[in-house]
Design brief:
14% strand, 201 residues, three-stranded antiparallel beta sheet, alpha/beta, disordered N terminus
Length: 201
């Protein structure tokens, strides 16, 4: 998958991040220490992860086995003094073992958006907080990415497991997990015990 910016063609990996890549290119900055057109390699991903960890206030690991690259990012974040969050999963799932190991080592257990937002309340002093719906009487309009919309459309008041959401949305597991977390942070999706998800009515 490639994405054109001016006269330069940049490789985008994973391909489902093309839309995000284009949005960042239009409104922010793309940072890389590799020449454009450099393909991803086994050696370059940990280097990229180091930059990601250093540019953020915190790192959330949603799913990871014990050899996952996400753990490399989490370790860099920890070294840089950033907050590390980990979402717990089923104890018999290999994809949960990395998260559980992070929690054992001191990562903050993350069960929903509130666990992340509460850690960074100092960034939102009362004078800078937007007026709440209770104060304005209207709900702000929400903009959803393509993946967020697909995941949201699969949900209703009926409880769905993350595996059911993955199947119904047709998205990869990683993209589904990221979209669900984002929808939780926007408070339009709620996670129930047992990793079940519903629309937040």
């Amino acid at each position: 998958m490639v994405c054109e910016t001016g006269n330069v063609i940049n490789l985008v990996w994973p391909p489902e991040n093309k839309e995000l890549y284009e949005r960042i290119a239009e409104n922010g900055a793309l940072v890389t220490q590799f020449p454009f057109n450099s393909p991803g390699t086994k050696q370059s991903f940990p280097i990229r992860n180091r930059l990601v960890a250093g540019m953020t206030l915190g790192t959330v690991v949603v799913e990871a086995n014990l050899t996952s690259g996400a753990l490399i990012t989490a370790n860099f974040a920890n070294e840089y003094g950033r907050q590390v969050f980990a979402v717990p999963g089923r104890i018999d799932s290999p994809r949960s073992k990395g998260c559980h190991d992070l929690i054992k080592k001191g990562a903050k257990l993350c069960e929903g958006a509130e666990d992340i937002l509460s850690e960074f309340e100092y960034l939102f002093p009362p004078s800078n907080k937007p007026a709440s719906p209770a104060e304005t009487g209207t709900l702000p309009a929400l903009e959803l990415s393509e993946n967020e919309q697909k995941v949201y459309d699969t949900l209703s008041e009926e409880q769905l497991s993350i595996d059911q959401v993955i199947r119904k949305s047709g998205l990869p597991a990683s993209a589904t997990s990221v979209a669900l977390l984002s929808l939780e942070m926007k408070r339009i999706v709620r996670q129930l015990p047992g990793k079940l998800f519903v629309r937040n009515t």
